[in-house]
Amino acid sequence: MPLAFILLNVETGAEKEVLESLKKIPEVKASYVVYGVYDIVIMLESGTLDKLREMVTKKIRQMDNVRSTMTMIVMEN
After folding, report:
1. What is the pLDDT of residues 5-28, one digit of tens each?
2. H/E segment holding residue 21
3. How far is it, in rounded angstroms, from Cα 37 to Cα 49?
């Protein structure tokens, strides 16, 4: 199953709200608010690479208060 880590920048003060929305997505296997350049890190697992891409582009990036994302697809684990 394709696995990716996604780093999100969100609007200031919206971290908890975005985190709670992400936790409702079944493909999000782990999610954390972090300090540093990014605000939230999630682990996303999907049945296919196309489904994973769709989740990122049509669900996560379209969420309110998400400013930007960086997706890192796992090649080997």
Report:
1. 999 999 999 999 999 999 999 999
2. helix 15-23
3. 27
